[in-house]
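ingest -> validate -> predict -> emit
validate: passed (alphabet ok, no gaps, 213 aa)
predict: started
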Amino acid sequence: MTDLTNLMQNNRAWAENITREDPEFFNKLSQQQSPEYLWIGCSDSRVPANEIVGLLPGELFVHRNVANVVIHTDLNCLSVLQYAVEVLKVKHIIVTGHYGCGGVRAALGQEDLGLIDNWLRVIRDIYYKHQERFKMLTDEDARADLLCELNVIEQVGNVCHTNIVQNAWNRGQQLSVHGWIYSVKDGIVKDLGVRVDGAEQIPKAYHVGADDS
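emit:
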């Protein structure tokens, strides 16, 4: 069995450091959480959401899965999304991918990976949808980087197509959905220039719960 003593020691050192800086921090944190942001990111251990954007516990609500995808049958992701939007009233949803994503690279290949192939199918669909753009790229890293970016953009759309987000907009709730990507090589986040603030920015075919007449 792996010895986890060092992790327990790290935890105590971390808690003591936080308490030294702000003696009331954990007392305030235990009362409630009121983050303004929902982060939908990858499970990759190299992408620690809070640290990347310099936020403390309680300031960022987080959902992570392999390759940061938003699938409309994934009750885990949708439950997090609903809680963030309807209960916590977050103002920003940030879908954040990262370059060098193993899930995205796997989706580019044809190796049989077992169960996870079903999860990565949505990324292969994105690759097929934009295949003409990939024909112009021969470098494998460049192809993977492009698919990482396109995946984020696609998932921003998937977030916006949910009735959870659209009902919030229909209620007049302030809510924006963003697409970012993170570089493991230098620690810098890049804004992909994708921001949706209301249903009028998405195709009418995806509109729900509002009268478009």
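The radius of gyration is 19 Å.
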